[in-house]
Write a sequence for this structure.
């Protein structure tokens, strides 16, 4: 299937979508129950006037349907179900790299058509339809018209999701903030207990950070905080979650990690920061961190897991700083 570009007259030609060549087969991870039935229905009437009327009516129904959710995944699912009435398909995939969204519905199939979604110059991601039979020109025309009904509801949902992410992000360092930590602690502990696995926490504090602010000022201090956050990200594993708790304190949550694994990462972070300076506006800052480690116990709650890491951090500070201390296990 060759590239095809087109413009839509809706909303003063501000919306545009583009179709491109078939993509490699993609495993879809959620069934679309409406697809099998749709594939065996007769195709829409060949009468173009009737089809045009059906498409216009369906577009209005889609607009009403998509007003019910601000969840991008749910919107794509609803849109797929509505489109299937006129254009049968077996799978749908929506990707938005800016928001790290990858929605897969249905299952893989041989033929596909992909649309790049935009409102003006604002990209909204890519949407791919898949099925066993090749899409006809009529199918493509119908999809192009129906896509107009998706764009604005999808943009509203993406803006909402972006706002949620911003609310859980530290504006200085760009990493997750305390609000995100509170939410993720519950999720990670629940995951560990469902899977019968371990979970660990590191709590880090920059040693003598007040002296940096007193000597160089808060602008340099902010630069130092960003530098420490970058160093920690260089050391942590892909699945580890990094948060700025507040001030000069940082937290790492580690899924499926026992005591030995947590201490190994803690020592790697500590040594990396001690061995590397941070250049802030010409000031070469040599910093160290103290780290407290706690590992999830059977009787732990999010509060107690955090409290034990905090106490271990206090012990590391009290014992001379630039070291790792592990919390004592809870008494059962």
């Amino acid at each position: 299937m060759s590239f095809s570009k087109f413009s839509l007259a809706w909303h003063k030609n501000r919306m545009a979508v583009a179709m491109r060549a078939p993509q490699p087969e993609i495993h879809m991870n959620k069934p679309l129950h409406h697809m099998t039935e749709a594939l065996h229905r007769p195709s829409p009437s060949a009468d173009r006037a009737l089809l045009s009327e059906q498409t216009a009516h369906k577009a209005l129904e889609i607009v009403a349907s998509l007003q019910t959710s601000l969840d991008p995944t749910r919107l794509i699912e609803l849109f797929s179900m509505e489109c299937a009435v006129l254009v049968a398909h077996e799978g749908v995939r929506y990707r938005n790299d800016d928001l790290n969204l990858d929605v897969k519905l249905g299952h893989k199939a041989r033929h596909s058509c992909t649309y790049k979604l935009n409102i003006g110059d604002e990209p909204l991601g890519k949407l791919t339809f898949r099925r066993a039979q090749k899409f006809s020109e009529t199918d493509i025309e119908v999809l192009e018209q129906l896509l107009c009904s998706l764009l604005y509801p999808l943009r509203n949902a993406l803006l909402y999701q972006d706002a949620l992410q911003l609310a859980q992000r530290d504006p200085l360092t760009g990493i997750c903030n305390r609000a995100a930590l509170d939410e993720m602690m519950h999720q990670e502990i629940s995951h560990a207990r469902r899977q019968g696995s371990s979970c660990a926490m590191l709590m880090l504090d920059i040693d003598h950070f007040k002296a940096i602010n007193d000597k160089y000022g808060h602008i340099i201090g902010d630069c130092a905080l960003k530098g420490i956050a970058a160093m920690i990200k260089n050391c942590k594993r892909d699945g580890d979650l990094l948060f700025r708790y507040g001030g000069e304190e940082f937290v790492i949550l580690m899924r499926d990690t026992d005591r030995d694994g947590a201490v190994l990462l803690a020592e790697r972070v500590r040594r990396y920061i001690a061995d590397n300076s941070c250049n802030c506006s010409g000031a070469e800052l040599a910093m160290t961190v103290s780290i407290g480690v706690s590992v999830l116990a059977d009787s732990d709650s999010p509060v107690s897991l955090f409290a034990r890491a905090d106490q271990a951090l206090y012990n590391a500070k009290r014992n001379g700083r630039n070291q790792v201390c592990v919390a004592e296990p809870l008494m059962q």
